[in-house]
Specification:
Pfam family, one: DMT_YdcZ
Protein name: EamA-like transporter family protein
Shape: globular
GO cellular component, one term: plasma membrane
Number of helices: 9
Distance between the termini: 25 Å
Radius of gyration: 19 Å
Number of strands: 0
Keywords: Membrane, Transmembrane, Transmembrane helix
InterPro entries: YdcZ (IPR006750)
Strand content: under 5%
Largest sheet: none
Structural class: mainly alpha
C-alpha cells in the first residue's frame, strides 16, 4: 500500500526520508553535547521537540488527524520543558552556555518532532510499523554514511575501531528499531505532543533507575531529578491522553 501511495502521489516521496532527520539528529547531538554538556542539551532539545510537536499536531502531519493548539496543550509542553530543566539544574554550568550550540540543540529536537510525525504518516500507508522502522534506518544510515564520508574528506574526523566491552552495549540499534516502530504507531493515535510528554517521563524514570542501580562513578541521585519526574507527569495530566483525543478534528 505504501508503494501505491507513493506512486499515486498520496504521500510525497520526500517524506520517505524521515529517517534522514533521525540521522541529522544524531549528527547534531554528537556535535553539540561536547560543547554544552548533556544537561543543557537535553533541556534545549526537549524544548524544540515540544514546540514542533504542537505545530505538527496542528497541521495533522501524523496522519491521525488535526489536534488543535489549546491552552492545555501549550501548558503541558511548557511544564515538560520546565520539568527537564529542574531535573538537570544541578548539572548545568554557566561556562557551558553557548547560544549557537543551544540553537543547534533546539533544531535537533525540532527534527525529532517532525520525524515522529512523518513516521506516523508513513505508517498509515505501510500498515506495518516495522516496515516504517526499516525504512527509517535505511535512510538514516545512508545519511550518516554520507555525512561521515564528507567529514573524512574534509579531514575533520578519522575512523576509529569499535569500542570493546560487553555484548549488550551494542543492543542499542535493536532497541532503536523497536522504538521507531512503536513511535510510528503511537503518534497516529495520541499525537506527537502527547507521545513526547510520556517519552520524556519515561526517559527521566529510566535515568533515575540507572542512577540508583547502575550509578556512574561520582554521580548520585538528586532531588532535582525526582522533582523533574513528578513535574513531567503533571504535564502529562495537564495535556491528557483523553484531551488529546477529544481535540482531534
Amino acid at each position: 500500500r505504501l508503494k501505491s501511495a507513493v506512486s499515486s502521489g498520496e504521500i510525497p516521496k520526500i517524506r520517505l526520508l524521515a529517517g534522514a532527520l533521525g540521522g541529522a539528529f544524531v549528527a547534531l547531538q554528537t556535535s553539540v553535547v561536547p560543547l554544552i554538556g548533556v544537561a543543557l542539551y537535553s533541556v534545549a532539545s526537549i524544548a524544540g521537540q515540544s514546540a514542533v510537536s504542537l505545530l505538527v499536531d496542528r497541521i495533522g502531519l501524523t496522519g491521525g488527524g488535526v489536534k488543535l493548539i489549546s491552552p492545555r496543550r501549550i501548558a503541558a509542553a511548557f511544564i515538560t520543558v520546565i520539568a527537564v530543566l529542574v531535573s538537570v539544574i544541578d548539572k548545568l554550568e554557566a561556562d557551558n552556555f553557548q547560544l549557537f550550540a543551544l540553537l543547534l540543540a533546539l533544531i535537533a529536537g525540532a527534527l525529532v518532532g517532525v520525524q515522529r510525525a512523518l513516521n506516523g504518516q508513513i505508517n498509515e500507508y505501510s500498515q506495518n510499523s516495522y516496515t516504517t522502522s526499516l525504512l527509517n534506518f535505511i535512510t538514516g544510515t545512508s545519511f550518516l554514511t554520507l555525512f561521515i564520508i564528507i567529514l573524512i574528506a574534509l579531514g575533520r574526523v578519522e575512523l576509529q575501531p569499535l569500542p570493546g566491552g560487553p555484548w549488550w552495549i551494542y543492543t542499542g540499534g535493536v532497541i532503536g528499531v523497536i522504538y521507531i516502530a512503536a513511535t510510528s504507531l503511537i503518534v497516529q493515535h495520541l499525537g506527537v505532543l502527547t507521545f513526547t510528554l510520556f517519552s520524556v517521563g519515561g526517559q527521566l524514570i529510566a535515568s533515575l533507575l540507572l542512577d540508583i542501580y547502575s550509578p556512574t562513578q561520582g554521580v548520585s541521585v538528586s532531588w532535582y531529578l525526582v522533582s523533574g519526574i513528578a513535574m513531567t507527569y503533571i504535564g502529562v495530566l495537564v495535556g491528557g491522553v483523553r484531551q488529546s483525543r477529544l481535540e482531534r478534528r
